[in-house]
Amino acid sequence: MRSLILATLVFGLIASAAQADTMTNCAGAWKGMSAADKAKTTYSAYSKMCLAKGYTVPAAASAAPAGATGQCKDGTYTMAKTHQGACSSHGGVAKWL
Fold first, then answer.
1. In DSSP terms, which residues pair with 72 in a beta bridge?
2. Cα 63 to the chain's mean position, in Å?
3. How confident is the model at residue 19 (pLDDT cuts 50, 70, 90)?
4. What is the phi-psi region of residue 7: left when phi exceeds 0, alpha when psi lies from -120 to 50, beta otherwise?
5. Dihedral angle at the C-alpha atoms of 28, 67, 18, 49, nearest 10 degrees?
6. pLDDT value of position 60
């Protein structure tokens, strides 16, 4: 019985952390959207759609993380201080920010 309670507690904490991370990503995507795209919906409606299971935030709509200096060819971001070696294991740099 203790194991069941402990497992439920751990799962709840993991699920809460994942939810918070997803909301952070959705909020970042909303901030990165153009005014024309924002005019098509409300933040509340966008958030519900973004948080829905299986929804993927479009790459063009996602905002770069704070401190990012470039975007790698695989879509990840780099925080490299110099160009040398940045995105070396991600296919190289697609663009510098």
1. 93
2. 8
3. very low
4. alpha
5. 10
6. 58
Supply the pTM of this predicted model. Answer: 0.40
CA-closest candidate to residue 95, choices 18, 57, 77: 77
* Backbone φ, ψ for residue 77 (5° rounding): -115, 150
Tokens read off for 2: 């203790």
Instruction: For the chain, give the DSSP string.
Output: -HHHHHHHHHHHHHHHHHHHHHHHHHHHHHHHS-HHHHHTS-HHHHHHHHHSTT----TTTSPPPTT--EEETTS-EE--SSSTTTTTTTTSEEEE-
User: Residue 69: left (phi > 0), alpha (psi -120 to 50), or beta?
Assistant: alpha
Report d(CA 36, CA 43) in Å as an integer: 13
pLDDT at residue 65 in the model: 82
Give the tens place of pLDDT for each residue, 41-97: 898 888 888 887 766 666 655 577 888 898 888 888 888 999 998 988 889 999 998
